[in-house]
Write a structure and sequence with these properties.
346 residues, alpha/beta, Four Helix Bundle (Hemerythrin (Met), subunit A), Rossmann fold, 2 domains, seven-stranded mixed β-sheet, four-stranded mixed β-sheet, 11 helices
Length: 346
Amino acid sequence: MIKTIEYLDGVARMIDQTRLPQEKVYVDCRTIEEVGRAIQDLVIRGAPAIGVAAAIGVSLGADGIEADTFDTFYPRLKTQCDALAQARPTAANLAWGIERMKRTAQAHRHLSVDQIKERLRQEALAVLEEDIQINRRIGQHGQELITGDSVVLTHCNAGALATAGYGTALGVVRAAIEAGKRVSVLANETRPFFQGARLTVWELMEDNIPVKLITDGMSGYFMMQGGVDAVVVGADRIAANGDVANKIGTYMVAALAHRHGIPFYVAAPVSTLDLSIASGEAIPIEERRGEEVVNVAGQRIAPEGTVAAYPAFDVTPHALVTAIITERGIARPPYGESLQRLAETG
């Protein structure tokens, strides 16, 4: 299994996803600031993986704090957490991982600072291990929606590389294959960072899962030709009404799937739900530098002086979502009711 991130002795070790598929290189982060930069620079990406990295980062941050009492320790930890939370604002799991670690510290305020640090290390390890098991349960629920001899289209990377292991959307594919179903994948390249081309195709080939790479603009063609049986994507944040924020271009895929009567499934852990916001209109959309659009692998592809926009995510309206697959089961419309039930069953 691909180990996207590990928590070793005082080190968060993660695959540098900016270097794939040309080379498999690991980055070691020893401070919470280094973890924040790795998240910001897309060394690690994917909402669940970001949540795991956040938990480990908070533990590393705690280890670096010199304090004798909780009252001097915790304000410093909170300041570090507030800074880490700004790394990528759209992914709900970033805030989720940070808040879980803050609650752990607060719950053990009666212990010594060294004991609190150890509790935080154990909690970070628990977050990592739980993520893998959560993804497997998502896969088991989701594979029930996939028929045999299916072609599944996916956008961006919601596989092992976007999680601590196994994957959400690609976890559904893996589970379907493990159940004996013949499934192949159409992977959108996912401009401008090429997560589909560089990451999804790489990890599926590593697992000998049939995959074909297409450009983002080809999705409609393959749907019109009857070459897509289902769409399965991940999510970075899901609002209370079922609106889904995911990698830019997802809304386009969902609209095309709706036009052609193809089921559009979202696979994500319950930690990606943000029931505090009523709809996708309130989801913050990260704006990245336009230079990331006009440069590909260090090569400029547009004239000097080109003005480019890069909203990193878009929001797919809940009316286009057939079902949302979580580790606690499958939510269907009306999402205002089904998502609330899943959130309460934990």
